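Request from the bench team (R.T.):
"We need a structural guess for the complex before ordering more zinc ion. Sequence and SMILES attached. Just send the tokens back."

Command: build protein-zinc ion structure.
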Amino acid sequence: MPVIIRCRRCSFELYKGNEPVFPEDIVKRYGFKCPRCLSQLSPNPTKLTVRPATRRRKFLLRLK
Ligand SMILES: [Zn+2]
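Reply to R.T.: structure attached below.
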């Protein structure tokens, strides 16, 4: 199932792929900052919004 992780602020695509990933690994890869808007990214799951996209069965993880 495709997974997309986006910056919550600017919707920059931090990760897109078919393999499930840990948000923590992704934000770590970016140094806990969004490369586009430089807002701080938190790997804390409580701050993530996971929502299924209705059309293509994608899951969007929004990082605050
Ligand atoms: Zn951003």
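Two things stood out. Residues 7, 9-10, 12, 34, 36-37, 39 surround zinc ion (CB under 6 Å). The longest helix spans residues 23-29.
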